[in-house]
Design goal:
globular
Amino acid sequence: MTQQTHESGSATTTATTTTSGTTTAATTTRDVVTSAAPTPYAPPFPPLAAPRPLGELRVWPRTFHDRLTAPLPGLKAMARFAREGSVRPGREGLADVSRLPYEPGPLPRVDTDTVAVTWAGHASWVVRIGGLTVLTDPVWSRRILGTPARVTPVGVSWETLPRVDAVVISHNHYDHLDAPTLRRLPRDTPVFVPAGLGRWFRRRRFTTVTELDWWEAAELSGVRFDFVPAHHWSKRSLTDTCHSLWGGWILTAPEGQRVYFAGDTGYGHWFSRIGRRYPGIDLALLPIGAYDPRWWLSDVHCDPEEAVRATQDLGARRMAPMHWGTFILSAEPVLEPLTRARAAWERAGLDREDLWDLPVGGSRVLSNVLD
């Protein structure tokens, strides 16, 4: 296994730049909690990079294979998967589809001093932060390429969304980068994407596309968007493997509240390093599904126990599970990610109120006590 850290005192970039312009899921919805008052955390190490210009045109390497933290499956693994791998649970594992938590409700009312998150399903969140409405990996489609139709409807109807101020994308896999959904957005919507993915958006006439390398940042209306590493990879066609980067996002409000959106990731060393550089994460949105069989998926998808461990590595106060209960992407029983995440949280001795195990469509609000 390779271990590429790409970490230094300022954001490291391989690009050159050119200038141009026991609570049930049902009871978790709409709860309001209060964040701890800011304390003198240890300063970020290394220091955070200065924000880059929005919409900056940049030149990137042709490939990001050197960022992989585990080799991609070879011919031997592919042959084994073809021989014995299953990407769907059996009949017993599918029996609980009707019990998947789905409770859509109105978006909570917030002001500029509060942070609210609403789970639309899979890795799609409506994040209200610093007065902005931010969508993460928006997938409002019923079906994505190569995958059965979603087993729970979208938790937030598109028509009820407020104006979308920004979109963040973790990587280019079809269940995270959905062209039909993105076509619904005005083309002047600011989008924040991994290095190498900007061309995809500019071809679709998006006008404010900000590409970032790991540990780099940009700002929009006082909210800071930092792109951070993940244990994953990228591919959208037969010829573009790892031609664009992959990662997660740290959103920091002007008042200091901090939300980490992990995107799609396996478990590994990046979590502790992210937590060290971004201390005081109030909420971590972490994937808990699509993990079975482990021999095939462990390098790129956390299982529920690893997601809880990642929360601790990050030093995050709260965790909200995602990437389960929406699309059937792997072989575990459909309800197992939730039950295992709850059990792991309890075994870790963590406060039950800090596990935001939302139903699809559920919301929670994080209030700032400084107002």
